[in-house]
């Protein structure tokens, strides 16, 4: 009974965290109305988040400090750089060459990559339940974005490769976080990883950009503060807690709900159209999540 409760609690954490992360796309669309660049939007998001991560990192110490080796801190540097910075950067570059529908279909092969990486490096067993859930959720994602899928021959290989690298780096982060969270604890690991990612984004701005960032309308800064709190800080801790409860493989399958929740939020908050095909795709994704969630 206790394991069942823990599993249900982990699933709830995962779903809430994924939905809050997905709300970022809606906030980004609102911010784009004020002609802000993607780089500056990402910079503001992390600048407003960084103080909270620093405070929590100083307040919350690792749960198993005696078992942590120096190399574990180097792993956090690596996973912070790879997971929340490099994955986003590859995705951003890939979107310059391919349409969003194709990008999402390529990007959401990462649950498969998580399970393969876990099998190779952590010797985790792949269950039939996981394979069925991956198949269903991926079919659901394809159905959901089929109407947006426009194949372009120009640079499609380059764009597809960049988005695949985004999926791969995020999968590596999920596997690594599942391994390190038990040592550091949910709050400490997340704070450290997000500080690393934030610093990477700030360094990128200082090296390659340096444009004025104080002349945007007040609405832009308000949107970015909301994004920092509700679509960055809170979901980052919820996702880490869900990974600690469910494991990286099962979480990655449930995370397929992300693109579906983005469409639903855009429908309710931005008034965008919602087609029957998208509803069917969403239902298939939810069915896949049910398969991985149910007890044998």
TrEMBL record:
Domain named EamA: residues: 9-145, 159-293
GO cellular component: membrane
Subcellular location: Membrane
Pfam families attached to this UniProt entry: EamA
Membrane-spanning segments: 41-59, 71-90, 102-122, 131-149, 155-175, 187-208, 220-239, 251-270, 276-293
Signal peptide (from-to): none
Keywords per UniProt: Membrane, Transmembrane, Transmembrane helix
Main localization, broad class: membrane
Membrane topology qualifier: Multi-pass membrane protein
Similarity annotation: Belongs to the EamA transporter family.
Protein name per the record: Permease
UniProt source species: Aquimarina atlantica
């Amino acid at each position: 009974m206790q394991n069942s409760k823990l599993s249900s609690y982990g699933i709830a954490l995962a779903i809430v965290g994924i939905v809050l992360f997905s709300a970022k796309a809606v906030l980004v669309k609102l911010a784009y109305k004020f002609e802000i660049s993607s780089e500056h939007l990402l910079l503001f998001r992390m600048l407003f988040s960084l103080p909270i991560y620093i405070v929590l990192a100083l307040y919350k110490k690792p749960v198993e400090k005696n078992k942590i080796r120096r190399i574990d801190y180097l792993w956090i540097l690596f996973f912070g750089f790879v997971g929340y910075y490099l994955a986003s950067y590859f995705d951003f570059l890939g979107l310059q060459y391919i349409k969003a529908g194709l990008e999402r279909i390529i990007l959401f092969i990462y649950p498969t990559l998580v399970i393969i990486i876990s099998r190779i490096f952590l010797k985790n067993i792949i269950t039939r339940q996981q394979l069925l859930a991956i198949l269903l959720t991926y079919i659901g994602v394809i159905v959901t974005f089929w109407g947006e899928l426009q194949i372009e021959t120009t640079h499609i290989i380059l764009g597809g490769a960049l988005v695949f690298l985004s999926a791969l780096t995020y999968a590596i982060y999920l596997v690594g976080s599942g391994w390190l969270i038990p040592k550091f604890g949910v709050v400490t690991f997340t704070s450290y990883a997000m500080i690393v990612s934030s610093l990477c984004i700030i360094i990128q701005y200082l090296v390659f950009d340096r444009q004025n960032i104080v002349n945007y309308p007040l609405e832009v800064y308000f949107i970015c503060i909301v994004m920092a709190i509700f679509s960055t800080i809170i979901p980052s801790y919820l996702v880490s807690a869900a990974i600690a409860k469910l494991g990286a493989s099962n979480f990655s399958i449930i995370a397929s709900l992300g693109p579906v929740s983005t469409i639903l939020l855009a429908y309710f908050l931005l008034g965008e159209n919602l087609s029957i095909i998208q509803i069917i795709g969403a239902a298939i994704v939810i069915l896949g999540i049910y398969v991985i969630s149910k007890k044998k």
